[in-house]
Amino acid sequence: MTNHLQWVDEAILKVNEKVVRTSKKIGANFPHASVDGTYKCEEPYWWTAGFWPGLLWLVHRDTKDESLKEIAEQCEERLDQVITDYYKLDHDMGFMWTLTSVARYKLLGDEESKRRALLVANLLMGRFNSEGNYIRAWNPWREGDENSGWAIIDCLMNLPLLFWASEVTGDPRFSHVAKKHGETVLAHFIREDGSVHHIIRFDPETGEKIEAIGGQGFAPESAWSRGASWAVYGLSLLFQYTKEDKYLQAAKKVSHFFIANLPDDSVPHWDFRLPEEVTKYRDSSAGAIAACGLLHISQQVDSIEAGIYKDAGVKILKSLYENYGDWDNQGQDGLILHGTSHYPEGKNIDVPLIYGDYYFVEGLSTLKGYKELFW
């Protein structure tokens, strides 16, 4: 595998060196956001639990470092308790087990990992609301919560687990559910200008759309940048699995909105529609996710179009490397600075985020020439 981008080789070398170093500190735990330079680890049921082991698998694939493989496997085994406990499982099972069990199965052919991923795929499929044709988001985490009619744009990235399950079992039920959810996204989540809603609330009994909710964006009609990045990548993956052109066209539509609204350094603000009085923090994680999606789209279109998407993806990743990367600082666990997790709740603003790190490294891996995605 070769490339003609010298900075990619430099970036991968720095990533590999730092991940090996931080792995000795983080171990088989589940980091989310870096607080004062140290990754705060969450409980195994938290939605970000797959990104650290997924990052370890990416680096292991490149370096063959056995210590990273062992930690990733330990993380996967720790997630067994989450399956057994059941009550903390939600729509993000795809994020969690695609980057642990599916990744391990694709890389090593491990049958126990295959079994885990298929079990979880069944549980994810069980969250499908057949009246509204959506996979339900979240659970009632607090007393009085009623979110059984909620679906979110992020869930596009959980669908590959279902498509994978259909591929390895020959049973189309999983992909049927994934496609139905995808059709609902096309119908209700993507605005005419290519921006996206974060949350749509449906009547869980009738399936009728009730309203759009701002969620992690600034407002119901704003343009949360990470939501757009989930759509860029998730819709391109839907096209990969279904070969239905409507998903590619939707992915391109959202991509054009995303690219057109990037600032000069190609790393997005956390929301593309903010009032002047609201601080325009960057969200480096949104940039990294979108970059992976843009590179993916570039592989799905003809050569005339491909450069539009590849150039944009490369530009984002290069800016993240040169302007947002933290490589030699012993006091910072994160790879990529200036992520924004949840501005409306005031959580993890202007800090490294583990999913930003993961997608940045996945994007580098694609530029280096690795073809197989874990998704």
Detail the topology: elements first, then pairings:
Layout: H1 6-26, E1 31-35, E2 38-41, H2 51-63, H3 66-78, H4 80-85, H5 93-108, H6 111-125, E3 128-129, E4 134-135, E5 150-152, H7 159-169, H8 173-188, E6 199-202, E7 209-213, H9 225-242, H10 245-260, H11 284-298, H12 303-324, E8 339-342, E9 347-351, H13 354-368
Antiparallel strand pairs: 1-2, 3-4, 5-6, 6-7, 8-9
Helix pairs in contact: 1-2, 1-13, 2-3, 2-5, 2-13, 3-5, 5-6, 5-7, 7-8, 9-10, 9-11, 11-12, 11-13, 12-13
Key features of this structure:
single chain; 375 residues; mainly alpha; three-stranded antiparallel beta sheet
Describe the 3D structure:
The structure is a single chain. Helix 2 packs antiparallel against helix 3 and helix 9 packs parallel to helix 11. The protein is globular, with a radius of gyration of 19 Å. It is mainly α and 375 residues long. The strands form 4 sheets. It has a 3-stranded antiparallel beta sheet with strand order 5-6-7, with no helix packed on it. A two-stranded antiparallel ribbon has the order 1-2. The longest helix has 22 residues. The chain has one domain: Alpha/alpha barrel (Glycosyltransferase). It contains 13 helices and 9 strands. The chain is 53% helix and 9% strand.
